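Lab meeting tomorrow. Please check the following:
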Amino acid sequence: MTATSNTTARSNLTNAQAVSISIISLFLGIGGGYLFRRSRIPSVPAMTATETTASSAAPQAVAPSPELSRTMVDAQAAAKLEQLKADPSNPGLLTDIGNIYYDGKQYPAAIDYYNRALKGQPADTAVRTDLATAYWYTGDADTAIAEFSKSLTYEPTKANTLFNLGIVKWQGKHDGPGAIAAWQKLLETNPNYENKPKVQELIAQARQ
């Protein structure tokens, strides 16, 4: 769940912190929207020994250019975009399209559709958390924090939002106390939080 697009903003993290975040992020699981969508910070799973051996012997796939990637994501969104023509303010459609662009790492487009969706449903904390996360991936930690904070005005104890807010404060703003406060609130208001031990580890690291 490490946001690799923000290496400049987080250049002051120690190597140990960066490794710890990657390990913890992988443990937490990025599927289901954990920092980030529905609040996830994506990470690249480590390859198994078999995969590593196979990859060293096989030709490596060439990553598509950003232009090609956008074309591919546009194609994935085509059906939803066509539906949107008949109902341009439909929050559900706008959110679905935003999700497609988010998952395709086309974050500016995702931001556009999430913002449009929120005009019709401003209290949707899941969408607003995704919006904040997309801002984080564009390198805009300040706007990400502002949107996480706004989400919390609607749902003050939302675990995913609090977790992500802590990550962005720590990695994006080097605000250890702010991150700790967010994570402590998460644990205090969500006593049965399934990843409690890992959040406690993050708190311990932020205190160092």
